[in-house]
User: Fold this.
Amino acid sequence: MAGEYVLQTHGLTKEFRGFTAVKNVSLKVRRGSIHALIGPNGAGKTTCFNLITKFLQPTSGRILYEDRDITSVPAHAIARLGLVRSFQISAVFPHLSVLENVRVALQRALGTSYHFWRSEKSVEVLNGRAMDLLDAVGVKAYAELPAVELPYGRKRALEIATTLALDPQMLLLDEPMAGMGAEDIARTSALIKRVSKDRTVLMVEHNLSVVANLSDTITVLARGEVLAEGPYAEVSKNPQVIEAYMGTGGGGHG
Assistant:
């Protein structure tokens, strides 16, 4: 039987030339939950995320996915296990249409990604599924539009659609709300809530209020270490968390 936790890290540490960016971080991400990794700028969130998604190799510590040790598994093999990352910088093909972007991702899932010389008909069978995904993220009306012309928030929604095309069991979102206004944040929050119905989500975010209504569990990092963990109501009242966010005293670096 599958365990309670989809993803766990034990003592995760990353040093860069004498500077410890992530120090002894142990996470447990519960199956079917939305888990947010947050903290002020320079807290080590992105480094931690890059370790989990294998863009960086830890100095020490272990990463377990579905009770399997994936610490040494290369980044390209992680997605095949069902662990898919959505990038902070919008990772879409700007001059393909919105529909074509999702179709390319579906082709990747089928293992036919390099068969661009095949007839148009062979990829048209994917149109139904692609349109369903566009509908799910609220950009179906933009299907024929070149992705470059999408409004910023909708571009991020398209990016989530292309991530969903790979049918992940666990979705890793890197600052999905970065650079968004209030309306886009509300729409993206609702989208994340919707797509999390049958999968686990781990997201990196620096804005505490953004994750307030979204997350089941929040882990707060500061200076590379876990400062607090729990539901928003508990974490937001923690004096150390308040101090880290208000930056009383020393003031952090970016």
Summary: The chain has two domains: 1-82+170-254, 91-167. The chain has a mean pLDDT of 87.
